[in-house]
Amino acid sequence: MQKTTLPTALLVVIGTIGGFLAALVHLPMPWLTGSLVLTTLTVRFVPASVPDGYKYPNDFRNIFIAVIGMVIGLQVHPELFRQIPTIAWSLAALTLFVPLIMALNYLLFTRVAGFDKPTAFFAGAPGGLVEAIAFGEESGADSRILALQQFLRITVVITLVPFGMSWYEGHPVGSAAGLSNQLPSSDLPLWATLAVLIPVGALGQWAGTRLRLPAGHLLGPLVAAAVLNFLPIPSLAMPVWALVAAQVVIGSALGSRFHELSGRQLARGVWLALASTAMMLGVGLAFAWVLNRMGGLPIDVLLVAYAPGGVTEMGLIAISLATSPALVIAHHVYRIIINVVIMNVVRRRWRW
């Protein structure tokens, strides 16, 4: 217990300092990117900061994933369902986007990186990290390379997208001050708000995992919170400090994983992740531009919806950009479903 608790507390403190410093220099999404960067630097250059074999505790991280789900769910209102015809085209296009990205990543990882076929295929899946690793191991993929590339994909996306969106918007996005203006306010005092939201979030996360929903730790609380908006009760909202804490924990959890990698592994993995991510974001931007021209969603919403990051991390970016986070999450959940279906079919038929 102590072997995990003390290093985790240290990483959270380091992540908080990193977020604070990033906020001082007005980086985009400072509490996420600052936490990720400073935690990564610490575990890489101060190896004694975490013990050998250390794993960031998932149970602790899942608490804050539930917070993100609740924040998104509380922004789901009846009028959102009027946009279903609008997102139908983008979801249909996503059905083409995922296999196209898989094919392009497969070519990159086999022709350029020299990976064997199963490792190349599952490392290039743009989503479903847990399923990709599980299916890849069953198919004879190199689990270390596979996990590294999948992890770096998420890390690179959540680093590049906020900077790109800040350039597009003309100002840094995702500051705590900006979030306070973007998030709804609660009609109840803080103690009453938390007294309602904490048990609802816990119940939603339990249900999401028991029902084995895609990204159940996020989607369960999201659905549970959304239900509250359809009940005759006062308006509720998560406090901004809870979302800031969630960003610090998610950032420090991602950064903590770098302590297991050698410098050579990391350098090679990073340039491959940059090449892969640049290609995926470029194709995603092309899809977003075409769909926007067809009268679909705004291009910034579509770009975040098509960006191949993790569901939790892209949900955070959508919240920070105030870009219809519920619609963004709908796309990412659908992307995971398509990924899992394709990976399962390939795993059964190709039999490497």
Name its key features.
mainly alpha, globular, 352 residues
3D structure, described in words:
- The structure is a single chain.
- The chain is mostly helical.
- The protein has one domain (2-47, 60-350): Up-down Bundle (Na+/H+ antiporter like fold).
- The protein is 74% helix and 0% strand.
- Helix 4 (84-112) packs antiparallel against helix 12 (263-293), helix 6 (129-138) packs parallel to helix 15 and helix 9 crosses helix 10.
- The longest helix has 31 residues, at 263-293.
- The protein is globular.
- The mean pLDDT is 86.
Strand content is: under 5%
CATH architecture: Up-down Bundle
Q: Helix/strand/pairing class, anyone? A: mainly alpha
Question: Helicity range of the residues?
Answer: over 70%
Name the CATH class: Mainly Alpha
Unreliable segments (pLDDT under 50, ≥5 consecutive)? none
Whole-angstrom Rg: 20 Å
DSSP strand count: 0
Helix-strand blueprint:
Blueprint (H helix, E strand, L loop, with lengths): L1 H23 L5 H16 L12 H16 L10 H29 L4 H7 L5 H10 L4 H27 L6 H7 L7 H21 L5 H13 L11 H17 L6 H31 L5 H8 L4 H11 L3 H26 L2
Helix pairs in contact: 1-2, 1-11, 2-11, 3-9, 3-10, 3-11, 3-14, 4-5, 4-12, 4-15, 5-6, 5-7, 6-7, 6-15, 7-12, 7-14, 9-10, 12-13, 13-15, 14-15
